[in-house]
Amino acid sequence: MPADPAPQASDAHSPPRPFDLAAVLWRRRVVALCAFVAVLLGVGIVTASLPKVYETTAYMLVNPDKPANSDFEQTQISQALVTTYAELVKAQNLANEVATRLGDSYTGDPSEAITVEGVPESQLLTITGEANSAELAQRLTNSYAEIFQQRIRELAKANAASGRASIAEPATLPDAPVRPRPKLYLAIGAVLAALAAMAVALLAERVDRRLHISDDMTEVLGLPIIGRVPYGTAGSVERLLAGEPPGDRESRAAAEAFRLLLANLAFANMGERPRTVAIVSSDEQEGKSTTALSLGRAAGELELQTLLVEADLRRPSLSAKTGGWAGAGRFGFSTVLVHRATLAEATWALPGSSVDLLPAGPLPPNPAALLGSQALREFDEEAKDRFSLVVYDTPPLSVSADASLVAAITDGVVLVVDARRTRRRPATQAVDQLRRAHANILGVVVNRVDANQYGSGYYTADPALIVDQKADEPSTSTAPPA
Can you give the pTM of this predicted structure? Predict the structure, then answer.
């Protein structure tokens, strides 16, 4: 049995990463851009559909009938007269006269289309009218000014008015509408669109349950990232499985990634390469079996006597990834554990390497009971005596306790996560499960990262690794129970 590992900083809960809005927006750039364009397009459509409104202003000069004793008194009287006349202009009977003069060209209530205000510190009164055409706005405003001027003259003749009102400047023909204002509306719309884009991006980030790992992250789930495997094309995978040396950049980068992972295992294990390693994942189809096989191939390149153990006794897939040549014979991991075969009888040497494969063997009726027995510990000790490196391919942690039982007796555990599909909650539960089993978690391998990270063209050697970027697929073996 391995000695109890020293406490690692990665086993403690790491402080939360600071919230990075820019990173969220970049990660959700597609949905944020769609939201921005949709809101801005909506503002543009609404702006284009709004009716045009033209506005023009007429100025009237208001004077009292009798001169005042001083300029101050003159100004005070004029201001009071301007206020009084402003209310008279708004009278409904005046609006009715304006409507009669405009005729059928104006269908609304004229009083609702004008604004009457006095100019501060002056004897001027402004009448501002608006309409859906420049000509109608001018006619409306001038009609108000002319009719009001005529009304005041009639009142003055009857000695019923205390002042005079005359048109100082008639309304001019406006050359552009005052509403809508496309530039202003679009500027406001751009601000609203940006806020909507951020809100949608944050909502998508909150709803999305996947585990997001950026290129600059050095740890995830409180564990160090000890390997990144780029995503390869299907054609490259087929050539590698056929035994052809990889010629494309993605395959060479993946091969080098597993070499680096093998080297990092020593750094993660206090400077000494672990003798036995369990490759685990939180769920299915995250590249766990691929990582185990490729890590074994990388160790074989260094002439390390390596044993690949197909420890998934429920749905084994490691044998199938070797091309199925080993098959599912009478002997395997299960028969070794029940002492029906020796390790030498059950292992198969992979051609052209120093790697041996121990298939799952006949599927037992109760894998958890078999893996939880003393036989597993005895097997692990025997395997370490015969091989320099033992790599266990385990079932997903979310399926059963099998992976935890294997992880508990190994020197180190590597957790494989899929950069494109692993969910946060199962991954967090997987780490908690491994810690409860007192497993020595060496770190995390991030599978299927963007291959552009390895786009420098540096990887030119043809490695002998078999790198299968397909999802872990269950074996079609129908071997009888042990």
Answer: 0.60
b (16+ CB within 10 A) / e for 44-80:
eeebeeeeebbbbbbbbbbebeeeeeeeeeeeebbbe
Out of 9-18, 164-173, 442-451, give the one with best mean pLDDT.
164-173
In terms of pLDDT, which residue wins out, 452 or 442?
442
SS3 content of the chain, % helix, strand, coil (to 5): 45, 15, 40
Report the pLDDT averaged over residues 323-343. Answer: 78
- Those residues whose C-beta lies under 8 Å from the C-beta of residue 359, and which sit 6 or more positions away, are 310, 316, 318, 319, 326, 327, 328, 329, 331, 332, 333, 346, 348
Of 453, 458, 469, nearest to 217 by C-alpha is 453
- In the chain, what is the straight-line distance between the N-terminal and C-terminal CA atoms, in Å? 26
pLDDT of residue 244: 54
pLDDT band, residue 129 (cuts 50/70/90): very high
Q: Label the pairing between strands 389-393 and 223-230.
A: unpaired
Contact 142, 170 (CB under 8 A): yes
